[in-house]
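check this one:
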Amino acid sequence: MKKYYSLTTFLTFGVFSILTTFYFPYLNQEIGLNLNEVSKVVSIGALFTLIFQPILSNKFSRSENKNKFIIFYLLLVFIAIIGLMILNKDFTILYAPIYGGALGSLAGIFEVYIEELCIKSKYEFSDIRKWGSIGYAIIVFISGIIINKFGYKILHIIALIMVMTMISIILFNFKENIEIKKSKNDFKFIDLFKNKNIILLIIVVFLGMGSYMGLDFAYSSYLVDIVGDVNIANEIYSSSISFRVLIEFLSFIIIYRYLTDSNSKKCLLIALIIAALKILMFSTGNVILIVIGDQLHGIMYSLYLSFLFKYLRDILSNEIIATSFAVLSVLSTGGSNFIYPTIYSFIQGILGYFGMYFSGFILIMISVIIFFIFLPNPKKS
């Protein structure tokens, strides 16, 4: 089963790379929205990710047949991608809730799905998740070439083919793992917010990873502004992102082989500090430093994702781990994109890109301080 878990993870994050990495330039270059309009559309979509990802995660956790749930969800993703293909400027605001609710939740839900299957099959999560990184890297790199030669429509058709391939693999090859019994416990969603550590983690993730992820919307526009040529900027953008995810893939391998038993809090602290360093390098406005800084994402994200799961297991009881991860995941993606693009575009309009990125650096460092001082060391209760 390991090869099928790896293959579906590869395809899932390949599709996710198309839907997220190229969503901002698609709105800007193909649909014709300016940076301010893009930030509004992204914020609305993120609001619906913020609403629907916890709902979908809750439905998923309560579902006895989780493979069936994922198949129906992927069919919804398929339909939403078709909507993305026929989108025009007049309907971007109306489509944003569909994008946020259906497409923005893809990675978060699938990560919880694969993590549960890994536990059930006694695989290390990082050993499977690394294939998501390499899928992201390869598809991003290929996508940049496809966009320049054939346009965005062909890219979206490829995404549709990949979704159908994923559905087929799960339908025909995940038979042993279709039935997963519901956990019988009295835990309610509202109980999550009675846990002091979860409240602190929510603050840390929103200020740290949230502000970090919330800057993604500006990257392609930033490169165009610096380079002055859309095609060259797109080539730098796709190459930079694909290479950084290749580094992410290699980082997952290193974590699996050498760092599995490392202190989860220390590793998360290192991840947040690396995130701050990347944003600081972006603030320089130097293309070389920006691209080098972007590669730090690969190291940071593999550390963050692998040890967030481990840290949650270290400080929380088992029945609330999946829900906790879903909440933290949506805060670092949907929550960040709901709040931060509007704030950052406002700052950029007044202080320029330097002011925007330096503000992000300050927020991440605040999260580092809170995490270091107030959250516990990993000791299983």
